[in-house]
Design goal:
Number of helices: 22
CATH superfamily of the largest domain: Glycosidases
Number of strands: 32
Shape: globular
Protein name: dTDP-4-dehydrorhamnose reductase
Largest sheet: 8 strands, parallel, barrel
Organism: Sphingobium yanoikuyae (Sphingomonas yanoikuyae)
Strand content: 15-25%
CATH class of the largest domain: Alpha Beta
Helix content: 25-40%
Keywords: NADP, Oxidoreductase
Catalytic activity: dTDP-beta-L-rhamnose + NADP(+) = dTDP-4-dehydro-beta-L-rhamnose + NADPH + H(+)
Radius of gyration: 28 Å
EC number: 1.1.1.133
CATH architecture of the largest domain: Alpha-Beta Barrel
């Protein structure tokens, strides 16, 4: 066993084929055009990287014709940084256009020929993954039909798996003829399937099948193996014999384990939504994440590592650690994986490494890579086109060096809290040893809180609500407990609560009244926030502050971005502009979020709720047709703002749902989302609405920094669902 647990890394690098289109993760994230990404990876402190030299990319058109230029430069850069490379040759792909997973004659030999050329060119690379997750790829391509060659047949599935196993064996033989010291790092998704008694046979089969990749490579699938007869029934007996006679045992077992990896099968389909319904040839059942239904929860990462160690007694690396969730949950998943590995090493299990995955985030996994989809940030967020380190980068460095971790990493993740149960709980019968809750170390019950100002306001309550949901310890203060106009009050609160950061969600919000109460508005919105930020800075604390689209005067031809100069037209806008100027002049970590026209189902006094109430009552509603804004859904705003705060971001950020509308058009969109009569909406000039403060005619916000909220359509959908639930409650009352 190596002396220390190592920190590895890897960018999501899938090239999978859907019909005649290749879905390339590096194209989507822009990595091909940014070789300096590799410098950022090195700065984290990773010792080894899973990095692609993919067959589809290097030899796309015909065998023997290779496009080395781009990959040469990147591999050389990694070598210059002293980072060991685990070379991946196929990652959820079916090979170039001249072969595919069911090409029994061409796939394996073609991959071996390609592997030989790669090994000759990069003879110093000692670790290889010729095929990533063969079992998973075979399932998605030849059993479920999601990826090319889009087959749904068990016999084709086993052939696709064996072709990848043969490809791995022949590739490693070819590589070792060049470099006899080459080692096989064989990755596979590993979880466990649980089921009701009626589905125990299906669960038993899946719990044997999950080992197929490694069992085949170790030469264990011989007569008497539980999978032998099933595969042999499809005419594969001779191929199984050949693999068993000439195995290729992995040098390192690479475990990819996700919160979705462990499944629960339930014959009581009525307990689950339609999208979870499925089955086999003889039974229909629901297939859901085990963590969402089992009580006690499944063993998780610790459980599968222990099983793999008991089965193979071969060194293990956790080769993908990623959780597509809010930032603090990503931190907790990574910290828990590291602690789990350290604990198992102390118990004698040879766990070599934990892998930061994916370094540049990933796109489209919500569609199973069948179409463009949601981008999930990873260690870096590349949504702006330029990589931005998230809090995961700092945590990775802390894990590698033993430095202090972000305080939120110590709290239990959602998978450790009651919120994990999405469906009626099912008791999991198992030996008591499997019920233990120590698969992660004990987490701090509280820790330093996030201090939130603005207990009576929409934003303050929204931040507190989000923190409760996300298990972020916090203190929500009202003015009597923290008066932003009083230095003594600020100092006492900061010293008493000892927060790790401060959210200033307080301030003057009445735009029209500010015209006649300018001094009070400036005290609350300008002088107070700067005073608070300065005193927080003296204590080493970050702050999050909220500004407004009204810092702009409406003269721009396009949407306003973060670099545009303020030009306010009213007192409220001027107060926010002065706040921004004061905060930007400070040296500390001060995040300023500009937003606009926010709406929420949790606040009775915002525009969207006012529209809903009026139209539900059959009353007309007047809204300005000559003032254009970008509405912002508060739950979305708060979620992304908290992520940015956790990441340690600073400066100006625009956060809206990025759709420009007039207030009247916004009212119509609210009406449409709730199926309310839009004819009751009266589009009028703003001058008719008795607005004391002058308003700009057009102040749409856009971002040049890449922190995007969901679409306004998604926001209105969420708002409408909540409003309809609330309406039903009111009617029952």
């Amino acid at each position: 066993m190596k002396r220390h647990l190592e920190l590895w890394g890897g960018p999501e690098c899938t090239i999978n084929r859907v019909r005649d289109t290749y879905q390339d993760q590096f194209e989507r994230c822009g990595h091909y055009d940014r070789i300096d990404d590799l410098n950022l990876f090195a700065d984290i402190g990773i010792t080894t990287i899973r990095y692609p030299i993919l067959w589809e990319c290097i030899a796309p058109d015909r065998p023997g014709q290779h496009l080395w230029q781009g990959v040469d430069a990147r591999i050389d850069r990694l070598r210059a940084h002293g980072i060991d490379v685990i070379a991946g040759l196929v990652h959820h792909g079916s090979g170039p256009s001249y072969t595919h997973l069911l090409d029994d004659d061409g796939f394996a030999r073609g991959l071996a020929d390609f592997a030989a050329r790669v090994a000759e060119r990069y003879s110093w690379i000692n670790q290889w993954t010729p095929v990533n997750e063969p079992l998973t790829t075979a399932r998605f391509s030849a059993l479920y039909g999601h990826w090319y060659p889009h087959v749904r047949d068990e016999g084709a599935f086993w052939r696709a798996l064996l072709n990848q196993i043969d490809g791995t064996r022949l590739a490693m033989q070819a590589i070792r003829r060049v470099n006899p010291a080459a080692r096989l790092v064989q990755t596979e998704d590993l979880g466990r399937t649980f089921a009701t008694a009626e589905l125990r046979e299906q669960a038993a089969f899946e719990n044997i099948r999950r080992w197929a990749t490694w069992d085949l490579l170790f030469g264990r699938v011989r007569r008497g193996h539980p999978l032998w007869r099933r595969m042999a029934a499809h005419g594969l007996e001779h191929r199984l014999e050949a693999i068993a006679a000439d195995p290729c045992p992995p040098d390192i077992i690479g475990i990819n384990h996700y919160l979705t990896s462990e499944r629960f099968l339930d014959h009581r389909m009525q307990r689950y939504p339609a999208h979870a319904h499925g089955g086999n040839d003889g039974q229909r059942y629901a297939d859901v994440e085990a963590i969402r239904v089992l009580e006690p929860p499944p063993p998780g990462l610790r459980g599968v590592i222990e099983e793999a160690w008991d089965r193979y007694a071969t060194p293990i690396a956790v080769t993908e650690v990623h959780n597509g969730c809010t930032r603090e949950e990503q931190l907790r998943w990574l910290a828990e994986a590291w602690d789990c590995a350290e604990d198992l090493r102390n118990e004698g299990v040879d766990v070599r490494a934990i892998t930061l995955w994916s370094l540049l985030g990933s796109s489209g996994w919500n569609t199973l890579l069948t179409a463009p989809g949601i981008y999930e940030p990873g260690i870096f967020d590349v949504s702006s086109g330029t990589p931005r380190a998230t809090a995961l980068a700092a945590l990775g460095t802390a894990l590698a060096t033993g430095a202090a971790r972000h305080p939120l990493a110590a709290q239990p993740g959602w998978w450790r809290r009651p919120i994990r149960l999405e469906y009626p709980a099912v008791r999991r019968p198992a030996p008591a040893v499997q019920h233990r809750a120590d698969s992660c170390r004990e987490r701090a019950p509280m820790g330093r809180p996030l201090l939130i100002m603005g207990a009576t306001g929409t934003l303050g309550q929204a931040f507190a609500r989000a923190c409760t949901l996300r298990n972020i310890p916090h203190v929500l203060t009202a003015r009597h407990a923290l008066d932003i106009t009083s230095e003594a009050s600020i100092g006492a609160a900061l010293d008493r609560h000892d927060p790790w950061a401060v959210v200033n969600a307080a301030g003057w919000v009445r735009v029209d009244e500010a015209e006649s109460h300018a001094a009070r508005c400036f005290a609350a919105n300008s002088d107070g926030p700067v005073r608070l930020a300065r005193m927080a800075e003296e204590r080493g604390l970050a702050t999050l502050n909220v500004s407004s689209d009204l810092v702009f005067g409406g003269k721009a031809e396009g949407a306003y971005v973060e670099t545009d100069a303020p030009d306010p037209r009213n007192v409220y806008g001027e107060s926010k502009a002065r706040m921004e100027e004061g905060l930007l002049a400070l040296a500390g970590t001060h995040l300023i979020v500009r937003t606009a026209a926010f709406f929420s189902p949790h606040d009775e006094f915002n525009f969207a709720v006012a529209v809903a109430r009026a139209l539900t009552a059959g009353q007309p509603f007047e809204a300005a047709a000559d003032q254009r804004i970008t509405p912002t859904y508060v739950p979305h705003l708060v979620r992304v703002a908290l992520d940015l705060l956790i990441d340690g971001e600073q400066g100006l950020w625009h956060l809206t749902n990025e759709t420009e509308l007039s207030w009247a058009e916004f009212a119509e969109a609210v009406a449409d989302s709730l199926n309310l009569p839009r004819h009751l909406i009266r589009a009028v000039p703003g001058a008719r609405l008795n607005q004391m403060a002058p308003r700009p005619s057009r102040v749409p916000l856009a971002t040049g920094r890449g922190a995007h909220l969901p679409s306004l359509a998604d926001a209105l959908g969420e708002f409408a669902r909540h409003e309809k639930r609330q309406q039903a409650v009111r009617e029952l009352a």
